[in-house]
Amino acid sequence: MKKISILALMMVFGVVANADTLENVKKQGFMKCGVSTGLTGFAEMGADKKWTGLDVDTCRAVAAAVFGDINKVKIVPLTAKERFTALQSGEIDMLARNTTWTQSRDTSLGVNFAGVNYYDGQGFLVSKKSGIKGAKELDGASVCITAGTTTEMNLADYFKTNNMKYKPISYDTADQVQKGFEAGRCDLITSDASQLYSLRTKMKDPSAYFVLPEIISKEPLGPVVRQGDDVWFNIVKWSLNALVTAEEFGVTQKNVDSLAKSSKNPEIRRLLGVEGKMGENLKLDAKWAYNIIKQIGNYGESFERNVGKGSLLKIGRGVNALWSKGGILYSPPFR
Predict the structure, then answer these.
(1) Which residues pair with 127 in a beta bridge?
(2) Residue 13: phi, psi to the nearest 5?
(3) Distance of CA 38 to CAs 80, 93, 156, 194, 206, Å?
(4) Which residues contact 55 (CB under 8 A, 6 or more apart)?
(5) Closest by alpha carbon to 152, among 135, 175, 168?
(6) CB–CB of 224/111 below 8 Å?
(7) What is residue 210's three-state secondary structure?
(8) Do residues 105 and 137 lie in contact, with contact meaning Cβ atoms separated by under 8 Å?
(9) What is the C-alpha separation between 79 and 303, in angstroms, rounded?
(10) Residue 148's pLDDT band (boundaries 50, 70, 90)?
(11) pLDDT at res. 16
(12) Which pairing describes strands 141-146 and 166-171: parallel, antiparallel, or unpaired?
């Protein structure tokens, strides 16, 4: 008799797909959020055993919206191979693990992407000693790569399109990729450009390596939830939108209290729960977005602290700037 997985049975009977995630999260008293096993700027545990990063802030924004407390979240580190199974099975309530939004993932895995918290693209990291100046010089190269990612498919497409050959060397985690590269097991690393900058900071001599100028793919990274629960999907989606809208209207961690009292801007007033039914529509407290901004800041503050000028990575905003400042970052209106 053919074995049927527990996950398959759960999905057949709707246990996972139709779960009332919000009520379950409230009953357990915290939210479970899947992140990377360790990626500087996005999800990393410090010496103080506390997690920080852009993805971690995305998790905490949802905790702030639901509980009014960013600490009501359990961070669950996951490899690329583990992440979707963990979400599908209910091991976690949401995923924020530098995960690319693609058509096949959006339509075949029983998940929904709730937006984009970082627009990225795949690149190549090489050593300066290699003498390589561009991606078209990589014919015959051995490439270290993380298994279970869109990176594998993009790499195959790029080399096939350019009639080049390569030897893939796969690892389960980014740390293993970095160590394999430094040990000389491959000629280069390919991954999302943000991850390459992160990995470079962990090398013994970061100045000995650089990222090639070519970007070979679009990698919209964002939070993911299970299909079949629109209430939870809306909460995660609009928690992210609240961060973006706050930056657009100049609402910061420092001025959120004064603006809640004095602002006459209708959208700011709706965002902060002073008027309207934004919280009620989400089955949350009226101050759900206020709590996010008060405890985390807006998207720009989170970006600069984790991956921007105030971080080790020092990545420029680029396409991740607001739409009004030359980027493509954009939230639907709060109305």
Answers:
(1) 209
(2) -90, 5
(3) 11, 19, 26, 13, 18
(4) 35, 36, 39, 42, 43, 96, 97, 98, 117
(5) 168
(6) yes
(7) strand
(8) no
(9) 23
(10) confident
(11) 47
(12) parallel
CATH superfamily of domain region 6-119+221-325:
Periplasmic binding protein-like II (3.40.190.10)
**Main-chain dihedrals φ then ψ at residue 159, nearest 5 degrees:** -70, -35
- Domains of the chain: which residue ranges? 6-119+221-325, 122-217
Question: How far is residue 209's CA from residue 181's CA, in Å, rounded to a whole number?
Answer: 11
Largest CA distance in the chain: 68
For the structural domain made of 122-217, what CATH number should be given? 3.40.190.10
Count of alpha carbons within 13 angstroms of residue 327, beta-carbon side: 18
Looking up tokens 């100046």 gives 133
Phi then psi for 170, rounded to 5 degrees? -95, 145
Q: How far apart are CA 178 and CA 173, in angstroms?
A: 9
Residue 164, Cβ density class (10 Å: 0-12 exposed, 13-18 middle, ≥19 buried): middle
Residue pLDDT, tens place only, 38-83 = 999 999 999 999 999 999 999 999 999 999 999 999 999 999 999 9
Residue 203's identity, in one-letter code, is M
Over residues 274-300, mean pLDDT? 98
- From the list 34, 31, 91, the residue with the least C-alpha distance to 65 is 31
